[in-house]
Design brief:
threonine deaminase activity; pyridoxal phosphate; about 15% strand; EC 4.3.1.19; TrpB-like_PALP; lyase; about 100 residues; Rossmann fold
């Protein structure tokens, strides 16, 4: 996540980033955003482990708990992106995210 976030344009950085995850990607985005001073929002299913939710919040991300499954959270994430224009950080289908 750090690699992708560090390559954002100034305009994208200003809008912030958003991701959906049940835990590990959420924490990577949250920590990377914190280190780079960029606001982040993470949509997590209500079934996400509380320890992962707490860790994600602990890095300063806004956490939105929504739905029972990852697919529910992803659908909510897509709704939010349409409203806010935040940059979406896909948890597994983005080479720049996978690079680190």
């Amino acid at each position: 996540a750090f690699n992708k976030i560090s390559q954002l344009t100034n305009e994208e950085k200003e809008r912030g980033v958003i991701a959906c995850s049940a835990g590990n990607h959420a924490q990577g985005v949250a920590l990377s955003s914190h280190l780079l001073g960029i606001k982040s929002k993470i949509v997590m299913p209500t079934s996400a482990p509380q320890a992962k939710v707490d860790a994600t919040r602990g890095y300063g991300s806004e956490v939105i708990l929504y739905g029972d499954t990852f697919d529910d959270a992803k659908a909510k994430c897509e709704e939010i992106i349409k409203e806010t224009g935040e940059t979406y950080l896909h948890p597994y289908d983005d080479v720049e995210v996978m690079a680190g």
